[in-house]
Amino acid sequence: MCSFKASATKPLLVFLTVIFFLCPCSVRGEDSDSSGPKLYFQNQQVDPLKESLSGTLLPSDKASPPSEKSDASSPATSFARTFKRLFSFSAPTDVVEYNYYVVQFIGPVQSSWKKSLAGFGAVFFDYIPQYAFIIKLGTAKVDDVKELEFVRWIGEYAADLKLSRDVYDITPDKLREQEAMLKVRVVAFPGEDMVLLGSKISSAGGTVLSSSSSEWRILINVKISIKNVDGLKDIKGVKWIERASELRTDNNIALGIIEARSEQEKVWPVSRSKLFGEGQIVAICDSGIDTGEVSSIHEDFSDGQGGSRINSNVVFPGSSIIDYSGHGTHVAGTVLGNGMKSGSSPLANSFPSTCYAGAAPKARLYFQTVGPADGGANLPGIPADLFDIFDPAHDAGARIHSNSWGASGPGNYDSLSVSVDQFMWSNKDFLILFAAGNAGKDKDLDGVIDSYCIDSPGTAKNCLTVGASESYRIGSSEGYGSQGWNIFNFYAEPLASDLISNKPYGLAAFSSRGPTIDGRYKPEIVAPGTNILSTRSSNQLGNGWGFFNEDYYWSGGTSMATPLVAGTAAVLREYLIKEEGFTDPSAALVKTSLIHGAGSLVPGQYGTGSTQEVSGAPDNVQGWGRMNLESSINSDDKYETEYHDIEDFAPSDTTYSRVFSFKVENNEKPFKAVLGWTDYPGSVAASGGLVNDLDLRVQQPDGTWVYPDNAVSLSPLTKYLYATAIDGYYKEDVTGLRVTPPSYPCTLEAVGLAFSNPLGFIENVEIVIYKYDGGVGDELFRKSFAYVPSGQYALPVGLTLTEGSVVVAVEKQNSSFGVGYQNLNPTTLGMVKVGGIWQEAAFTPVIGVNFRTQIAATNFDRLNNTVSVTVESPQAGTYKAEITANNIPFGPQPYALVMSGMVGDNPTEGEIELNTDQPGAPMSTFLSKAHSASSAVNVNTVYGTALESVYSDKSSFCVQTVADSVISIRYSVTGLPTVEAKELTLAKLFTNGTNKQFKYANLEDYTDGNWWLTDVLGKFVEPVQALNSTTAYYVVSVLKDNGSYDDNPDLGVIDDPQILGMSSPDTGGTGCTVGMDNEYGPILLMLIAILSLVLGRFSKLNSGEPFITVKFRK
């Protein structure tokens, strides 16, 4: 037996385990080991009628629990004993008029059942999956309630259910630093006596730091010795206890690309105005804004005529009025800066390509300052109760609230998340946005970013959580434009050598990935997040990613992506009011519309090999994709978007059913329907989960049904953890834990461990799974993690098991590494390997093992409150979107539905025209245009090309324009090969018998010699996007008068014969050629920062010359 040194017992550093929950669903018997619904509490599950919990529960007479197994080492027995303790309660020694209970119904909740319980005086609080609630009930009424035929079970809401598993998640060093004191957040039920609660907390050894109350709950921040925390859960009226979060800005790393300015520049038909966010108020809670004094703040926040667009700057206690970090000033400029310091003219609605305006340059601002005086990332001014942020902003008229901050973690649903969901449920016109966080890491060095790292409160269900995509800035003067991801400690390929901002169709490596701990998709949307240029605080300490000038600087992070989405949300809300006729669009409609327009980034910047991370939309990397305002609104008369904001007659129970019809003319673009709703807040005791569950399916014209994209209906993970404290760290090479899965087949989803790496070494730690059959047998699985720092982690496994037990081992060679352990091994499940021989350990390792069992299949999503149905190649005819209610514990449930599809004709193939999407296009007229069929052999012979095949006619045009200007033309093609877009070759054909290949651009970059494809609506086709042979595309090319692609020496005349084809394999195509010498003007950089700014519209020309007429999109 190996020796080890024991230290003083410390409370367990409970690792953050990857756990899913099965939310309520109509399918009976979905769990493979039980036909009845279960209760889910803190990553565990129990069927109170089937587990042997003696007489400590209050079961109905309709079922009797089976006898308890006697095998002490059985995980099921240990699990049952755990829940026996959690649900047990002693007979009261004095008269208690009321208590808090968990009541479970027999199936999907009916409103009549709740009314019956209310008749007994029950007050309903949190919903607990499946079909259960925490209620307040007179003790004398418990027997009456348990006799109700629709009540499956009732039992006390026991003390041990109230204590979060992460409350002791603190390192020994940090604990010493805090003198063994913890800061915790105590959540109590509304209506309890705050004075009495404070007195009892003091009696338990705690000091009340602050407190607040609302109709939803009582919040009390407490400082207490770690040894006394456990006593808080015994205080009557306490619902939940968790560790207080450390909230920080998400600005350490950066963002990327979206699409809106084109739609802002046009005059819209109903309002006869442009869309710049006018009439909208956006609230921002951040470090501060410049000087903080409205009269002297950065000119980009002015109204263009001497006044300010800042309605108020509220400085919270503990905060500095001056923005020393510059974070808040940068964020605000990205949302609604108007570019006054860089050449805009807001009064004339002129935001030219030389200015650095934000997404909503005419919106007004309600700012909330919470930053420190030292310029650091911590935010001391954020109040304990987030309602103190949201309420004043809503009262001030703001309907968009942007937050680029959060607390790091594995995607927990905590009290901050609940507060966000509570406020949005109570104020359904108020859209809150949060940054996903910058916690993306590649611990196993496999070249793919690890999952489960979304910041709280971005884990809330109802907020819009924003991740970061790459921007496109590769110049050495553009922040970190010439740097690779290795500067942020990404060491494995393809990450290490990849530039930070050269692939706008990819994700930023640092951007936090989902899912949340209860299995939901997060983030829901991404936007540009690397090398973003925005406003600079005049008192700033440091220059972020780089100094630009005294008024602007570079920065990055999901902090920068979030304000891009917030500003665009303000513009979208303005559009819905002015053009679609919604007087007060719901937050669900704005959020759903943004998600509906998002474009998938599949396959991402690393292709389809082993390092492909973006697999489909939705997923836990990009959510539904990169934001695109143009696709979120009715920007083209051939493609219609239809909005429904349903509040009246919203679903109240499972009888609800409603059908919405949409007629599709052709299959050139997908039919898409997105359903979203602001859900009732989840329970921290159940780690979140869906409460009101709506379903969407779509019937095609031929009668077949299509179900939600990537629908999630997961079983819960059963967690086995046999240590309850950490007494030290085992430093020898190998230790393990023997476990038996709950049922078969199952998946060993993840292994959690408390780990010590005090010197921060980068060296392999291996998770190894061995078969166990009376002894340690064959190796079933092995995975190396190159860097595991000190802390508690859930490391992914994904091994399917069909029989038997296993030993989960942690193997290492560095003697400074340690795996947490607890003294003694009463279960005999802890093991060590000494001298090559496995044997029983004298301790229990702090290793947790998480299994997920199989469930019955369902086509619906049971976790997310946004679901989508996409038909890539729709049939012509009427599509019917059916909305039904699977479970409505708290109704009625309003919702939003957004649908879109082709309603117009396809473009005429080969017809050459000026590209109407070019921003700031010069006045031009065709002198001639023609197209004629030509073979690859003929073109190769005449012009010296090396084309294997051609896919367009030889297209020729001659255009007259302003001397030295840049123009772009387009024409439609079909029948393209099923390759990535960048594999095609567009060849310029010169009259002297030579050729020159255009360069496929990374974005809509109007630089001489660039080309790209768009769909029939003008949406850019990413270089790595696979083409469809039956789809029509536009070929767009860019030429400069007297540039290297112009075949006419006359000033103001551009001549361009060209042909689209595929180069022979041995010659290669130009592909996506981007060199380090590519430099772009400032506006292009800003347009990249806001994909909204990438496009532009120019007005209809009304001169005597025969200029091309531009038809605006509806």
Automatic annotation (TrEMBL):
A Pfam short name: Peptidase_S8
One GO process term, biological-process aspect: proteolysis
Tree of life domain: Bacteria
Bilayer-spanning residue ranges: none
Catalytic machinery residues: D286 (charge relay system), H327 (charge relay system), S559 (charge relay system)
Residues annotated as signal peptide: 1-29
Record bears the keyword Protease: yes
GO MF annotation, one: serine-type endopeptidase activity
Entries under CDD domains matching the protein: Peptidases_S8_Kp43_protease (cd04842)
Keywords from the UniProt entry: Hydrolase, Protease, Serine protease, Signal
Segments forming domain Peptidase S8/S53: 277-625
Family: Belongs to the peptidase S8 family.
Record-given protein name: Subtilase family protein
